[in-house]
Design goal:
2 copies of one chain form a homodimer. Chain A is of the alpha+beta class. Helix content of chain A is about 20%, strand content about 25%. Chain A is globular, with a radius of gyration of 21 Å.
Chain lengths: ~425, ~425
């Protein structure tokens, strides 16, 4: 058994995890929080492996975690990932190596009674999220959306200097699968006073977020290198947005009710360590763009600060569901095309002394690539509702209709490495 | 002993609470979280009474809380106020009546061993604040600040319809007395690329916030009447702001690093019940202003939705401190002059289904009145730095200098009632 946790030849005794198309091979080992469906059990930490979940509280009772430090074993038996996130990189690495030994086909730690079938589990929001921050890091998204609202000046003068962000709402973050209620709000025509009604321009935004690990004390900024180390792991984020509410409420303090009615996260946190083979250079700025300011610049970040995480959005209407049609692919893009890396976002976030706590969620902003088909939300894809997309049923969509299901998936692929999947981030509009 | 908890003739066996100038007479009974200074004790819930704190965990051990329901007694012995906030209005009222019996001069429950001198206590942030929301409810503030940045259009078209707000940062909320480190950030001249340095336009904003009690489930808006009931209690909030960082970063998503480096709260939560005698009509809209939309309108709110809480800001420079000079009064205003009431803010906040959790903090926005001397921040007071204020030492201030201490106080006064004070919200710039 090699010590390389990325070795693509490694197999597990959990059979389905050895299939080429699984999101969760033994090289992945993402962490989440679950309980047996309908059980009302206290939630516990689990690890996704193929179509199964390794229950860490059960594993601990079986003595499988005996090699870990008491703090790490306690954190693994908790009801959120916050404790594991707080322990830092070295402990995370110990856990990864132990999990690999437990699940390795050549290991001697096969304990099927510590597994729960994913089909029998309810997957929850994996951390108690203290603060949720949402960035705006795709220059393609910012430019295309900016052109709809400010054609004369699509990209604000600060964009290439400041990783733009706002604080989102923690209380309304829900796990994949939670139905999304169409929000009501103030809707404004061009002339009249606003009326109140259900949003008529309900949209998704596909994003990837990172959970902060042991981060910084209030008043002490992180360097870019420190910020990189504080990334615990990544998940998919759907930043549901009501565009009609947004356009009316956002001056002068930014979006509020247009965003805070719900944010969906995928339940599995793919660790930074699992993603090591998929690091890539930071965005290559076109000639003429200013270089990042010194606190946002380092050769390490330029060389490998990015993550090549590919995201795909698909849509299934109620009629498609009834007809048994598969979800319709709407867009594909990669996190590698973002103007700022996660390390730059975290360094900027703490540059004024603001503290990140373990379990805080920091999202990328809508992930859009340069070309058509890579627009990460409907506002952008349909050019503000001007160009509807057509579904296989012939239905047209500018924004989301009731009964529409939005399915986001993310994964990493590279020759010579096992495919690392993120699972799904789903939600049906109700 | 009367059953009226607002009876101004009621006195306590804690002598200092009977003085006319105390913030904490027996009619107030604000709740906070404290520990003995330097003790490293687990924090506990306390009640301010004169210059003393009634320690509820100690009171419970002495059997003084025996009349309460087990849930209420447990919440009173916790380390944050969240549990008490979650129990709802009826339980809060039971607690208030019991505390009054314990502390009443005519009662038989005098137990000096359950008191801790305020001088010997460290006062903490009173709740685990899940989400912190900051409104922008003074039309005087919005108009004067708007005129500095957008002279042609000081008040955005949405202002009289939408209670404007943004999400702030929970992690950097600190209790009164915590030194405030001047933030660094991107500073931008009129032409050049930005440079990075300490903010040169550091400001305070005087606000009052409410802590949410048992509130709403995700997806279920609160009516205006329900929203009123979900206000647990109030505290003073200083929304420190770095104006140079703010002006450069805020487009298009609002303020971020210009605000999230620190927010100071006063440690005592003055309950809604204690404030009942100081309710006042909602703001009288001048002729020509549109009426509030139906979900923000009710006769009850118009008649008594406001709180006449008076706020005062004073400033003491390091030189004033060395010279033994008292803080210099800078401004006075009242929460009654806000364009929106707290109930309107909470109803709007939940109108899209967004959930408020017990312990969430919702702040008013800068409290400014109509006239000069009622500007709730230096940006407004000095007209963007054009008109410095002069301190008793002859020092001038446009924005805050290192060593400056900002002291905010708030109180309610009305003939025939005991004065209800909020205590202080202090911070020194370091």
């Amino acid at each position: 058994m090699t010590n390389d946790t990325h070795d693509p030849t490694r197999r597990s005794w959990v059979e389905r995890s050895n299939s080429a198309d699984t999101d969760f091979p033994i090289q992945n080992l993402p962490l989440g929080v679950f309980r047996r469906r309908g059980s009302g059990d206290v939630p516990g930490v689990g690890v996704a492996i193929g179509d199964q979940i390794l229950d860490l509280r059960a594993a601990r009772k079986l003595g499988l975690l005996d090699g870990l430090s008491p703090a790490l074993a306690d954190a693994a038996a908790a009801s959120t990932l916050n404790g594991l996130m707080a322990l830092g990189q070295l402990e995370s690495s110990h856990l990864r190596h132990l999990l690999m030994r437990i699940l390795d086909a050549d290991g001697r730690l096969a304990e099927p009674q510590s597994l729960v079938a994913m089909d029998h589990a309810e997957l929850l929001v994996p951390a108690a999220i203290g603060d949720y921050t949402d960035f705006y890091s795709s220059i393609f998204h910012a430019t295309r959306v900016g052109a709809l609202f400010r054609p004369e000046n699509p990209l604000a003068a600060n964009y290439k200097y400041v990783p733009i962000a706002y604080h989102g709402r923690s209380s309304s973050i829900v796990p994949s699968g939670t139905p999304i209620k169409r929000p009501r709000g103030q809707l404004k025509g061009p002339d009249d006073a606003p009326r109140v009604g259900p949003s008529e321009r309900l949209d998704y935004e596909v994003e990837v977020g990172f959970f902060a690990g042991a981060a910084n004390v209030l008043g002490e900024p992180l360097t870019l290198a420190e910020a990189e180390d504080r990334i615990f792991g990544l998940c998919i984020v759907n930043d549901w947005s009501a565009r009609d509410i947004q356009v009316w409420e956002s001056q002068p303090l930014g979006p509020f009710l247009s965003k805070n009615f719900a944010t969906t996260v995928s339940p599995w946190v793919v660790t930074r360590e699992a993603l090591a083979p998929f690091r890539c250079p930071a965005f290559t700025r076109p000639p003429g763009d200013p270089p990042p300011l010194p606190y946002l610049s380092s050769p390490a970040n330029e060389g490998a600060g990015g993550f090549d995480v590919r995201v795909e959005v698909s849509l299934r209407s109620a009629a498609m569901q009834r007809a048994g049609l598969a979800p319709f692919g709407v867009s594909r893009a990669s996190l590698r095309d973002m103007y700022w890396t996660f390390a730059q976002m975290a360094a900027h976030h703490t540059s004024n002394g603001c503290n990140l706590r373990p379990g805080d969620l920091v999202a990328s902003g809508t992930i859009s690539g340069p070309g058509h088909g890579a627009e990460g939300c409907l506002l952008e894809m349909t050019r503000g509702g001007a160009d509807p997309i057509e579904l296989p049923t012939g239905e047209k969509r500018t924004f989301l209709a009731d009964g529409d299901e939005v399915i986001m998936r993310a994964y990493c692929e590279r020759a010579g490495y096992a495919r690392i999947g993120f699972g799904e981030c789903r939600g049906v509009i109700s």
